[in-house]
């Protein structure tokens, strides 16, 4: 008789087990304590927080780019080491362009004076300054403005602020400007007057000082000092504060877009 293959024994045992399980007395039955597991609800991903707006004024001027000057005529005085550009002067560095009637450059451009209808514009960093005279130092990084100042700065949402006064200063390092003397401010429906105004933090913050008077529709705010901060959505008033507001109107005004167009400067 032939010997069985060693594989045949496990196969037979398996068939016998299956047949036994099929018998009624060994039929499997469910336990009353076991309940079906409920489906886990899908977790919706949380939307990522809206990033803080990047103000274009915060981008510093690239000082590695050359300073370019174009004019109709030029005169150089070797004794005083001064260079004077006359007629339709255009000075460019990075994205900043300065138009003036005359530009006096000293110490190889370390300091300069632009005069005669000075217009400083930067469409990339989105600000415009019109003044009668600008005295620049530190390779055009700092400027003292005189003979009238008209400043426009635009935020990432296309909203603008216009500040006018008698004199002021501008700094590309601090990304801000200060205007003094009979200051007026237009910011959409907001109209304000003060002795001094500072536009800082890339145009997102406005500070008014001395005899501050603010009007927004029928709402009136008066104080010695006021600070409007776009990033914090806050308003701070200090010193002899007097307020008359209509809450419903104030909320409506706050939701309105600013409406001052910076292109108005270019046509003046």
Short account of what is shown:
With 268 residues, the protein is mainly β. The chain is built from three helices and 15 strands.
Q: What's the topology here?
A:
Blueprint: H1 8-22, E1 68-70, E2 73-77, E3 82-93, E4 96-106, E5 111-122, E6 127-137, E7 142-154, E8 160-165, E9 167-171, E10 176-187, E11 190-200, E12 205-216, E13 219-229, E14 234-238, E15 242-244, H2 247-254, H3 263-266
Antiparallel strand pairs: 1-3, 2-3, 3-4, 4-5, 5-6, 6-7, 7-8, 7-9, 8-10, 9-10, 10-11, 11-12, 12-13, 13-14, 13-15
Shape descriptor: elongated
Q: Write the element-wise H/E pattern from the N-terminal end onward.
A: HEEEEEEEEEEEEEEEHH
Distance between the termini: 119 Å
The biggest beta sheet reads:
15 strands, antiparallel
Question: What does this protein look like?
Answer:
There is one protein chain. With 268 residues, this protein is mainly beta. 10% of the residues lie in helices and 49% in strands. It contains 3 helices and 15 strands. The protein has a 15-stranded antiparallel sheet that branches. A hairpin with a 4-residue loop joins strand 9 and strand 10. The radius of gyration is 36 Å and the shape is elongated.
Key structural traits:
disordered C terminus; 3 helices; disordered N terminus; 10% helix; 49% strand; 268 residues; elongated; 15 strands
